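ok posting inputs for the inosinic acid job
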Amino acid sequence: MQGIGIIGAQWGDEGKGRVVDLLTEQAQVVVRYQGGNNAGHTCVIGNQKIVLHLVPSGILRPGRLCLITNGVVVNPQVLVEEIARLKSAGFLENEDRIRLSDRAHLIMPYHQRIDVLREERRGAQKIGTTGRGIGPAYEDKARRAGLRVGDLLEPEEFKKKLAANLEENNAYIEKILGGKGFTLAEILEPFREYGEKLRGLVADTSRLLDAEVKKGSRILFEGAQGSLLDLDHGTYPYVTSSTTTSGSIFSGTGLGFGRLPLLMVGVTKAYTTRVGSGPFPTELSDPVGDRLVEAGGEFGSTTGRRRRTGWLDILALNYAIRLSGLGGLALTKIDVLSGLDPVRLAVAYRYRGERLTEFPADLKILSQCEPEYESLPGWQENLGSVRRLSDLPRAVRNYLARVEELTGLPVLLMSLGAERGQTIVIRDPFSL
Ligand code: IMP
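and the output
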């Protein structure tokens, strides 16, 4: 395969950054195509822990071209700071390796304020957003009022558009949300600076990508968030504001469908986590759930929030497989299940006496579903140092085989610890 799409198959935080970091070894180009700095991809390299919010994880390997394309919403302050951090940590020898779409929309300070104030106002009904202004930025994009990266390069135009935007957004913040608006000057000055700092990175990334496709480069598409947070197909309204399923690889980059052979790999933890509100049928509010939080270090890399935890949900996984046309799985954090016996897989839901085997679209139904579990023997061994499939305890191999059977997909990769080397590549997706 020339291209691999890395898709979160759950509610985000599946370990996509890890998988991208691993596969980047064989790729020349890595692309972020949706979402914004609501994402947090954690990679541990030696004794360094790197969290990336906007720059594709491919940046951690020398020489890879990293594209932030039109579907991403970009907070320029976060990007400027992230680039500076990467430089000082020795991961970015020069900025030529990062290219930023002129069409990507900007997250403005008022977007972030609206996001936070709105959540406060919602009270118990809150979505539990990351508070990064993602939703309001996509709203401005959809109502065709957004400011784009390209606008940053035209200070006079930028000023005019910003003034118009402020008028409406300030009125909303002050009159509806009861907050404090922004003055033109307090935004203009820092944004002029961001424009200068980012100017050299701005490009038509759709053309760059097409050129790489034609050259035969291997390309990784790094999804953010997870399939169940998809704006259309996720557990609406407890979702993010972008398309997190594979379709947005095309709309979010300007790459035409069929331009290159592309395999979609779904990343799933060996259990499930969720941050923010919304139904979660396999959630465990018991000591096993606490144990998953502790053993798995389940605290958000963007907001530090404790994640909700539960058993692996095969219905949700099969739904993600269907939505994105996934062709293989990467199973992460299987080491976290060590010491639990039995381990469980949700294979059906009970809803008002009925047995459901498909993930229901209706949130009211989903919130009343009771999972039906299949129990498998657990294992006690620490898996951190295992590097070959054949060295895994039999119970782990049984678990893998059962997941493959229930999903109909091969597990191509697995991770057994937070460090770069703690992975087993069962089948290399690029070789398929
Ligand atoms: P927003 O994307 O900040 O608007 O948040 C909407 C929902 O998506 C909330 O439930 C967030 O917790 C969730 N979310 C957004 N980004 C991520 C992510 O990268 N990982 C996990 N959950 C996320």
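notes: The longest helix spans residues 155-176. The radius of gyration is 22 Å.
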